[in-house]
Amino acid sequence: MTAFVDTKAALLEQRYGANQQKPTNIIWTPQVEAMLSHKSVRTFLPDALPDGALETMVASAQSASNSSGFNQWSVVAVTDRELKQKLSNTIARTVPTDRIPWIEEAPVLLLWVADLSRNAEITREQGSEPVVLEYLDSFLMASIDATLAAQNASLAAESIGLGIVYLGVMRNAAKEVAEIVNLPSNSFVTFGMAVGHPDTTRTSSIRPRPAQPVVLHHNSYEQGRYREYVDGYEDACLAFRTKQEMKPKTWRGAVHEGATSMSYMGGRENLRETVIARGFKLR
Ligand SMILES: Cc1cc2nc3c(=O)[nH]c(=O)nc-3n(C[C@H](O)[C@H](O)[C@H](O)COP(=O)(O)O)c2cc1C
Hints:
The protein is α+β, with helices and mostly antiparallel strands. The chain has a domain at 39-204: 3-Layer(aba) Sandwich (NADH Oxidase), CATH 3.40.109. It has helices spanning 2-16, 30-36, 53-62, 81-92, 101-105, 117-125, 136-159, 174-180, 212-215, 227-243, 251-260, 271-277; strands at 73-78, 108-115, 163-167, 187-196. The protein has a 4-stranded antiparallel beta sheet, with helices on both faces. Helix 3 crosses helix 7 (136-159). The longest helix is centred in the middle third of the chain and has 24 residues, at 136-159. It binds flavin mononucleotide. Flavin mononucleotide binds at residues 38-40, 42, 165-169, 191, 207.
């Protein structure tokens, strides 16, 4: 019993850092414990995924809720080494070189696709133009559904001892990525996900999150409340960065950089054009 309590306390300590306030009334289940244990994995062993891992991830992904039951997402599992290398090289041209070695290292790269192509075809086969699919909301729906599917898949992967990292960086070269894996019109790689066996000699720690009042509002949004909690979060982030031997950087500084540095976009500033060229009208 003591060990049980200790594990939970340790998880909360890692998730929120030593000094931030933590919820004291978590209803612990194995699923909750697994979610609170999440950390992105960026160092992989070369071993292939166990038999059934991909299918388990996809069944989990398909079990996520999806808008109107329209199943408007797909996933391309890239295992071919040359193809993976080609995708990695394509992205490497858009980011500093040390930023993406995990794309090549992971045995599988999943490309999560917001996919209106099937439903457009099914509609046309019935003699009509899919006019609703031309609207921004349809694009958003497909993107949301691809994301929910991916998150379920990630939890499944983690539950069988694999590690994952999402790869928004795939959107830096959205046009080329779509061409390389032969995506049809009306579909778009929302993000990638590297999957594999974590190399535990090189993996990172659980990354802290801000105290709950920063994100949780009761009944009505309290603008600016986050301010009183930011210093506490900075302390937790600094402790994490120090432990990971990352160069010191404040969270506020990172937020500022992310919101002001166009180099951070790495090509994603052209996304609207690419998405429209891929057949989404975004009305
Ligand atoms: C949609 C999305 C895209 C992401 N893209 C990248 C990426 O391109 N490269 C990367 O190293 N990490 C990427 N990440 C991982 C985040 O940096 C990571 O989830 C965040 O720092 C929190 O760390 P944790 O997942 O270890 O808790 C992405 C995460 C999400 C949700």
